[in-house]
Amino acid sequence: MACAMSFPIAARLISEQTEGPAAKGGLMEIINLGKDDGLPPVDWSTVLEKLESGSAPDPNAPNARTTWLCTTSEDGSPHVTAVGALWLDDAFWFQTGSGTRKARNVVREPRCSIAVSLYGADVVVEGVATRVTDPSAVARVAKAWADHGWPAEPDESGSGITAPFNAPSQGTPPWNVYRIEPRSATVVLATEPGGLTRFRF
After folding, report:
1. 43-200 — its CATH code?
2. Farthest CA pair distance, the chain
3. Contact 109, 72 (CB under 8 A)
4. Stated pTM of the model
5. So where are the chain's domains?
6. How far is CA 43 from the centre of its chain?
């Protein structure tokens, strides 16, 4: 069971068709958890803009872009760890060594969640993690990490990545790349007009 924010469903809005890629061309269910407090539903397109731009609460803070990955341990307990994840092609991506606890967890139970604070909003995305080995996809996400300041590049096989440095806990390179396919997202909007909304894709 993936861990993330848990809120009682205060109100359910009718499902609506969206044109955004996050809904994969289908229906996206919008649940306004703040309706009883007079809050409007959060606009998912606004959240997407923040995710795609890497909008941080304080761009100059050392931990401005920390994301928190929650996986399920073998005994069913949650395991939460900071990861250098990024949002690309309507999904979160992260990398880790094959021997790490989070890697072992997602191999056994791929359902997980990832949380991030953006400028004016906190977001928790729940989804399914899948290891990515396609060389073109690995090269694309490695370039995205490099563009964000971490000089990652594909390893010789093209199915993993390497870099001059990484967190010591990740082990030696190459590191495996994972994509989290979103299934739902919970958003707390801290700026006017405020909002607390869950989206199901």
Report:
1. 2.30.110.10
2. 55
3. yes
4. 0.83
5. 43-200
6. 18
